[in-house]
Amino acid sequence: MKFMGVNEIREKYLSFFESKGHLRMASASLVPQNDKSLLLINSGMAPLKPFFTGQQIPPRKRVTTCQKCIRTGDIENVGKTARHGTFFEMLGNFSFGDYFKHEAISWAWEFFTKVVELPEDRLYVSVYKDDDEAYDIWNKEIGLAPERIFRMGKEDNFWEHGVGPCGPCSEIYYDKGEEYGCGSPDCTVGCDCDRYMEIWNLVFTQFNREEDGSYSNLDHPNIDTGMGLERIATVMQGVNSIFDVDTVKAIRDAVCNICGKKYGENHKDDISIRVITDHVRSVTFMTADGVLPSNEGRGYVLRRLLRRAARHGKLLGINRKFLAELCNVVIEHSGDAYPELVEKQDMIFKVLTTEEERFYSTIDTGMSMLMSKLEELKAEDKNVLGGEDSFKMYDTYGFPVDLMEEILEEEGFTLDEDAFKAEMEKQRTRARNARATDTYMGAEETVFHKLDPAMSTEFTGYGNLDGEGKVLALVVNDEIVNEANEGDEAAVIVDKTPFYAEMGGQAGDAGVIEANGLRMEINDCTKFGGNKFIHTGKITKGSVKVGDTVKLSVNAEQRMSTARNHTATHILQAVLKEVLGSHIEQAGSFVNKDRLRFDFTHFEAIDKETLIKIEKKVNEKILAALPVVVKEMSIEEAKKTGATALFGEKYGDVVRVVNIGGYSVEFCGGTHLENSAYCGSFKLVSESGVAAGVRRIEALTGAGALEFYEEAEFMLKSSAEALKSTPADLLKKVSNLIDENKRLAREVESLKAKMSGSLVDDIVNKKVNIKGIDVIAAEVKGLDMNALRTMGDQIKDKMEGIIILASGEGEKCSFVVMCSDSAVKSGANAGQIVKAAAAVCGGGGGGRPNMAQAGGKDASKIGEALETAKTTIEGLIK
User: Fold this and answer.
1) Is the dihedral of CA 236, 239, 242, 247 positive or negative?
2) Are 551 and 515 in contact (CB under 8 A)?
3) Which residue, 270, 355, 561, 844, has fewest beta-carbon neighbours within 10 Å?
4) How confident is the model at residue 647 (pLDDT cuts 50, 70, 90)?
5) How far is CA 42 from CA 46, 67, 417, in A?
């Protein structure tokens, strides 16, 4: 068997199947297209699902690909072993209703034995236990001996994913040799050791699984095969892991060169080297496919991988930026097969470098704080990092939570996740409350303060969504510049704009700025320093200079969605005044394309019936198709119309008044609909208190409301189906189930009481005497704190003295201690006794001298705790 590199194997595979009439298709992007079930492409067949389902006609019935894939389900294990990785390439040949098992099996055997020349005596196969057809092909047509064909069950050799197409599969294994085995005489295909490695899976999609669990034959069976390129490369190159194959080893060696370490000499170093080697492949390919770092979705996966690699660089002693340097190695070895890597090289470098810089600016501070805190916890003999400390590192210093958890695990600590989530919710509330304040995008305040105070922007967007303006200023990377170029995140100020800047509780517009050769995607527009409208976004093409004349175009759909929410907010305020009273005043609001939020003065929660009434009245005004008339007038004239002014707001001599059919008349500088009917509908989604005397309503309109109704309908139908009911009868069904549950709970409590009664006599009979005081110290299985107290009361009715009861469930345990008056007079103290007992189990508690309770964290030590309680009693009794 001759050595073959990864690139050679890939080419031989694709060329072989081209010779069999397959169309060679380029790898699809890692970003799924029209597939909401996946965050990232994770298999060769994933991008081809529309062909398998018949939604699209394939370009040819026979297709072959080498698909780039990412799987992050076991990211924490990457590096810890040489088996795990996030990025891999999947070779595959596919038939959409054309050839089937005979060809798939024979071609797989031909490729292995004739093309890459694997030794036949090293190859073994498995088939589904009932797939006689596949067994016979391997045995009678290929000539494989029966002892090298293994029948396996559904778990191993049948592919299905819920209802839909499915079928048996046949896997091909390579025997790496006895030296990789476990030494067991029973070691064979299917053993958990490393000897027999599965290298190719042939899936025969011939059935359709129905809703009732039955299977029917597909009219046109399909073939879906998958072979990990790096895995077959380990065989062809005679190496032990994917980190040893040529293209991956090149990255691994580069990591070693940068950090000055040698792979294979230190276990901890090897973990970090593998993490970086794997992750840099993933982030390079993801960035080339347009994924950018963010705090959600694919962007978060990228950020997590990138920052994890950067941290392991720190562990290896690398104290400089290095990821862009490593991605050069990825591009060098994979660029021929994936030309997008070369085409996007500059962007990849910039994204990786920028993100690495951001990470280093936070990691040093965060790591220092974290390790300092852990030292404090060690000194206090604690092993849990509290929510307040962890959230401060996350929120104030940008320290990633998953990274924090990983470090805590390494150091033998855990994170108090519930406390962290509670702190997160507090922060979200603060953020929502802060949305009404002036903000601006992209730079420190001092940068915009450097601009000429007289610089001003004229807003032309009430009646127009397009316009021209002259560039007055540019800001890039927190610096005022004369020119911004392609790829720059920039802030642009012009003399005239149709873009609405965030103010008055309305989000800023999005859209594009264009000129000769220029295209800049605007994602926000904010107002600063009087009347400077700051358009922020990314230049995707060309460049722009101060003094250039540009065309500005607002995103019409987003503007319309925001206007729906804004007009609906005005109607809502008028309805609230009508339904709740004239005391209603606006205390804040925020509207964007997605939803509306309205804060108002009110001093109690609004009941369900009133909320329904409010929602209904708002929708009545929408359906009434009220005209929306906007006029500018003097402040005096506006007041005469009865227009509502924002409480505490200062207005100029001329104000803008928005009149919605005479029902709502308000001072407002925002953008609105021409008719209330354009809101579509109004759906109130929440009502809550945000401060003393201030309530908040959040709601949806237009498409947002429709999506809400669709989801609610789906949940209603799904719930009804799950309970074997109908939506109309669901409430009755749930009510009956609740009643039944209560009845059963009462029965359970009754049975517990009976059991407890019988136990009490047994426990009383086992009392001991300590210094003249009768003492009961007993463990009772399966009782909660209430049940323990009840049992204690029952025992107390039968004896004078000290009662100590304990019960454990899982790791946690509970203690109750009761002391009679005579025992207390003799020196007994229930609080001190329970505290001493609970401490043995890692807990604490207390109470009065005659009754106390406590909890513990280690139920396995209850016996020891009860003995400690007895010892404590001996020390207390006079």
Assistant:
1) negative
2) yes
3) 844
4) very low
5) 7, 9, 29
